């Protein structure tokens, strides 16, 4: 399990407007402290906080996309790992 510099497990922010998919992501990330949000706007303040090392966000969300969320986080000087999948087929 990945750890922060202080030895605590890396926190994961999960963003998905489909709760069933978010629950599956939590199971995949079992053992990592995770917080789930239904929108990128809700997730942004937490993602910018201390201890968050990974963001898993759906690409297609209403409002800001998952990719835009990652760009905003990085624009604030926070460099973390990001996974941006989508369950939607092609364009």
Structure explained in plain terms:
With 91 residues, the protein is an alpha/beta fold. It has a domain at 39-91. It has helices at 19-28, 40-47, 66-75; strands at 11-15, 34-37, 52-57, 81-83. A 4-stranded parallel β-sheet has the order 2-1-3-4, with helices on both faces. Helix 3 links the parallel strand 3 (52-57) and strand 4 (81-83). Helix 2 (40-47) runs parallel beside helix 3 (66-75). It starts with 10 loop residues before the first strand and ends in an 8-residue tail after the last strand.
Layout of strands and helices, then pairs:
Elements: E1 11-15, H1 19-28, E2 34-37, H2 40-47, E3 52-57, H3 66-75, E4 81-83
Helix pairs in contact: 2-3
Structural class: alpha/beta
The shape, in one word, is globular
Largest sheet descriptor: 4 strands, parallel
Radius of gyration: 13 Å
Uncertain segments = none
Q: What does the oligomeric state look like here? A: single chain
Strand order across the largest sheet? 2-1-3-4
Order of helices and strands: EHEHEHE
- Would you report the number of β strands? 4
Distance between the termini: 36 Å
């Amino acid at each position: 399990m990945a750890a922060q510099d202080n030895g605590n497990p890396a926190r994961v922010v999960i963003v998905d407007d489909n709760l069933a998919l978010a629950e599956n992501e939590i199971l995949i990330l079992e053992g990592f402290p995770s917080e789930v949000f239904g929108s990128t706007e809700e997730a942004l303040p937490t993602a910018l906080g201390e201890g968050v090392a990974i963001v898993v966000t759906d690409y297609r969300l209403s409002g800001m996309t998952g990719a835009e969320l990652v760009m905003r986080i990085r624009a604030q000087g926070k460099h973390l790992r990001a996974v941006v999948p989508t369950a939607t087929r092609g364009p």
